[in-house]
Known about the structure:
It is a single chain. By secondary structure, this protein is of the alpha/beta class. It has one domain: 3-Layer(aba) Sandwich (Rossmann fold). Helix content is 41%, strand content 18%. It has an 8-stranded mixed β-sheet, with helices on both faces. Helix 11 (227-236) links the parallel strand 7 and strand 8 (240-245). Helix 2 (71-84) crosses helix 3 and helix 5 (140-146) runs antiparallel to helix 8 (182-193). The longest helix is centred in the last third of the chain and has 16 residues, at 257-272.
Amino acid sequence: MEKSRAAIREGKIAYVREGEGEPVVLIHGIPTSSYLWRDVIPPLSREFAVCALDLLGYGDSDKPPKADLAVCAQARYVAEFMMHVGLTHATVAGHDIGGGVAQLLALGRPELVKRLVLIDTVAYDSWPGPEIDRLKDPAWDKIIERIDLRKGFRAALLRGMVHKDRVTDSLVEEYVRPFDDVEGRRTYLRCARALNNRDLLIRAAEIEQLSLPVLILWGEADDYQDPAVGQRLADRLGAARLVVLKDAGHFLPEDQPEEIARLMRAFIRETSAR
């Protein structure tokens, strides 16, 4: 799918847009991009207008060296992007840190978010994991300049997926590609170092008071975000429902794309009818 680009104050956001109907916005996590949704978009776009973006610093979006890449800043960038492309009231789905972005977007710009879909999302103090936190060591300033990210990305995908046969060379290559030069690797390091659970912890009480419909999807075999985190969110969000999917890990859109699309379609139809 061909990408377009929309300018916000911090740089240009790359995105794909497919289908017609009620708008749906898809937000990826780390270290992925809108490519994460490539098999979710076709079945979803048969009924809805789907927009999947690359967060600032990720994918084919700009990588400005001084931009704030924290989750709270990304929520502001997504809001500005949505306004720019005319997505004024959408279902917003987020995976991993994209789920954190979606939560903060719903708080900061509630008029833009009609309902939420949180997929193996970060929440409370469940993040960042040690594999991300270790990158804050100053030694990585030099290591990142010469390291080949392919080995680490492949290991992360294998750990995070049940269907390990889908972790092909081409899949790894597409996720590495945006970071596959010195400046790109430095940007990846900045993306990782920007992650701070305080962004969600300080607003946890407000998040729990969100009254919009929320669907929470989780891979039963998620080795990065424990399904108990999803249960905690579902228990504390009054209008939330948790669905745990078998034969799936953390990268649920890779493991179960058609099932995600099916569940999202049903959720949107059901909540639209109320």
